[in-house]
Amino acid sequence: MALADLHVHSKYSNHPSEWFLQRLGASESYTEPETIYALARQRGMDFVTITDHNRIKGSLELVEKYPDRCFTGVESTAYFPEDGCKVHILIYGLDREQFARIQNLRKNLYELRDYLKAEDLACVVAHATYAVNDRLSLEHLEKLLLLFNHFEGRNGSRSPLHNDSLSMVLSQLTADDIERLEQKHGIAPWGEMPWKKGLTGGSDDHAGFFIGKTSTRVVAKTPAEFIDQIKQGRLLPQGRQNNFQGLTFAIYKIAFDFSQHKSTAFAHSTLSDLTRYLFSEEKLSFKDRLRLNRMRSQKNNHIYQSIVRLIETSRNLDQDDIDTRLELLYDCLSDISDQYFRSLLESLTTNLEEMDLIRIIAGLSSSIPGIFLSVPFFSAFKHMFGDRRLINSLVTSLGHVSEPKAKKILWMTDTYTDLNGVSMTLQTIGRLADETGYGIRILSSLTAAQQEQNLPAASLVIPPLHSFKLPHYEELTISVPSVLRMLKAIYEEDPDEIYVSTPGPVGLLGVLIGRMLGTPVKGIYHTDFTMEAEAIIDQPEVAALIEKYSQWFFNQFDTLLVPTTEYMELLKKRGYRHRHMELFRRGLRTEHFKPQPVTIGKSCNHSRLLYVGRISKDKNLDFLIDVYRRIRQQHAGISLTIVGIGPYLETLRTHCSDLPDVTFTGKVPYPDLPELYNRHDLFLFPSTTDTFGMVVLEAQACGLPALVSNIGGPREIVRDGQTGYVLDVSSTQGWVTRLEELLADLAHGGNLCRLLGRNARERVESTYSWNTILEDMVRPEIESVRPLRHRQPSPIKRMLKFASNMMVH
Predict the structure, then answer these.
(1) Which molecular function GO terms apply here (predicted)?
(2) Beta-carbon contacts of residue 390 (< 8 Å; ≥ 6 apart)
């Protein structure tokens, strides 16, 4: 058996496709052909070739020097003439004349294929599912299956998503598949059994790291025999596949090589010094050691300490143990980047409060190295997954999969341990995922104190860089997560769909990373922050700013899930995109929230009213107290329990200081809520800003008749006159009148209230079952995935571009 890495680049490949390297002005590779030969042989390769982009010089140099061990190769950039879509074709065993002819023909892929066939040249489609110029479609892939018989089944620079999906499809091709595609596209396939595809392996190395780590195994004793085996398709691909950390590592190495070849701003920057320490095998100079000691002595400078650890760690590792180096380097680089961002966030928090514009600008400028350090990670991440939807379409079209797997869902939120409907909903989903084994993970950024709570095992916690209290929502702690650690966690999860519940830092990163991941991203409109701001803050310009941001944020999603049809119409009128809205089905643990044998009030004078929720002015609680005052005039013994915490709590206490039967319980533990509901007779919820009203659903599940506002989401939970009442909040009179009827019923045995409660319970059980809802969520979709919409560059992408310009120029 013989091994060869069939896809390697040398210094003669000089047009990088990676955005970061383009911004630097770097070439695609700086590896000497002789270095490629030495590393390949050292790593067990029997034969060596070089496949530079549209250049043959490197492979000719090796063939001339090592004719018994090397053969020529090229990676030819070819074009579908109908639309200019680029593809890369690996060609082996060609001479100078054939190369010159290929250069002329490659602008028309069909003519190039015919020439390769006529010349009997060994050729392989490289990384077929990777869109070189964003034009690649399922139809192009289908045509490639007809035009060529050999494909790169394991590309060492691509992820398993690309390699394994393509290999699976190719291994399952049938004669009927090829016949169908031939009729569809009118292209005659190559060979007598064109459904039998040969698969090769190659590292696609550009940086000199992974040469020989991915290869092709054949039976051959000479270069000519190896090439003949490629033609026959008698091949076995093997070896390493890549991840975004490996690709980032390679990008940094190329940037370092570039800095050694050309004097630029990058070549004289701190980042260039850092890459020199990382990638140069030379011993540290006396000047370098002095500099390292100075950094080591500054114990309070966390960035310096991380750099020292990075340099010392990298130099103590085996140069050939790539994956161990990648893991340790990623941790160190994450720490360094986090320190830059943490310093920025802390300075912004202080200086924004003091409106110190000079320090704000200085803080932004000082964070640029951290931004620049992070750019290649994001770029590499997108390279790994950018074609997911195309791959899914290929698998759906040609993959003969008997049973599609259930979807993996990553659910991202900025609030997870707080007392609100979003947190309670997500904790419930997390616990159901624990019990049922559904592939649902809940990701949030939590402080150490928040992590001490009893969280579901399905939780995925990212450490925060910085945490702060949200103005007017002081009981909420907003955390900004470690960006690179979050990137790695999501990469390892590799979800099929992402759900985003909140428009905070975690939600923003969820949108960004979901786009790079190529997965459908679904947003959930839990909270109407604009209406809450209008009710809480007497500053119209603030509410307008919140509305503008909310529209931008919630319009980024492939699908926007809205709790009620009323809110879908309301958001449509306010300028939100309506066509991508769907109803968000909410559920409840009905085995937890259920009626309990608690005695209801025997007379109207001892009836118990209940409100549960956030104690905030936007919840219309002043209206609730007005209603209570009026009904109390006729029924002095009636009580009102107000459960929850919030910024309006102390003000409301003061307003109720003359009402001895109004009780404020504060926060009640979630497991104790069913008993609380069952100890009361009627549930009152006059809020006009809730998009759904989970507490209303909980009360109804416990058999409690509910009186809710005619504005907002809760009105769709309550069936007016059947499970409770939907009442006009423009006047208290309607509420008082309805309450008097219900109190009179309670005084005479409560037959009506029991009927309303029984109906409420039955409706919740039939309509709001979490088990059914989650089963539908994870059920695999049979139809092909919708294509991504084209968008303008996001603010984050513009920021990264700005950072690179600053560092390069």
Answers:
(1) glycosyltransferase activity
(2) 129, 131, 136, 137, 138, 141
Rounded to whole angstroms, the Cα distance separating 9 from 490 reads: 30
Query: Are the C-beta atoms of 390 and 479 separated by less than 8 Å?
Result: no
Question: What is the helix (H) or strand (E) element at residue 609, kind and residue range?
Answer: strand 608-612
Q: Are 2-242 and 407-583 the same fold in CATH?
A: no
| Backbone φ/ψ region at 544: left (φ over 0), alpha (ψ -120 to 50), beta | alpha
The residue with tokens 């034969």 is: 47
Q: Say yes or no to pLDDT of 541 above 80.
A: yes
How far does CA 533 lie from the centroid of its chain? Answer: 29
Q: Is the pLDDT of residue 309 over 80?
A: no
Nearest Cα neighbor of 529 from 520, 542, 517, 538 is: 542
Task: Look up residue 653 and give its two tokens.
Answer: 């206490």
Planar angle of CA 387, 388, 392, nearest 5 degrees: 120
Domain boundaries, the chain: 2-242, 247-382+793-808, 407-583, 604-770
Residue 146 makes CB contacts below 8 A (sequence gap 6+) with 178, 181, 182, 185, 187, 188, 189, 190, 194
Which residue, 612, 364, 374, 616, is CA-closest to 482? Answer: 374
Contact in structure between 140 and 87 (CB atoms under 8 Å): yes
What are the start-end ranges of the H helices in 6-137?
A: 19-24, 33-42, 57-65, 96-105, 109-118
The pLDDT of residue 377 is: 77
pLDDT above 70: percentage of residues in the chain: 84
Query: Cβ contacts of residue 93 below 8 Å, gap of 6+?
Result: 71, 72, 121, 122, 223, 224, 227
Of the candidates 540, 542, 566, 572, the one whose C-alpha atom is nearest the C-alpha of residue 554 is 572
What is the CATH code for 2-242?
A: 3.20.20.140
CATH 3.40.50.150 fits 604-770, yes or no: no
Q: Return phi, psi of residue 128, to 5°.
A: -60, -30
**CA distance linking residue 259 with residue 274, whole number of Å:** 11
User: What is the reported pLDDT for 31?
Assistant: 92
Helix (H) or strand (E) holding 50: none
Residue 356: burial class (beta carbons within 10 Å; 0-12, 13-18, 19+) = middle
Question: Can you state the angle between helices 368-385 and 244-261, rounded to 10 degrees?
Answer: 130
Report the number of secondary-structure helices (H) and strands (E) in the chain: 32, 24
**Topology classification of domain 407-583:** Rossmann fold (3.40.50)
Q: Cβ atoms within 10 A of the Cβ of 200, count?
A: 30
Maximum Cα interatomic distance, the chain, rounded to a whole number of Å: 106
Query: Are 159 and 385 contacting, i.e. CB atoms less than 8 angstroms apart?
Result: yes
Checking if the pLDDT of 118 tops 90, the result is yes
Provide the 10 A C-beta neighbour count for residue 137: 15
627, 735 Cβ separation under 8 angstroms: yes
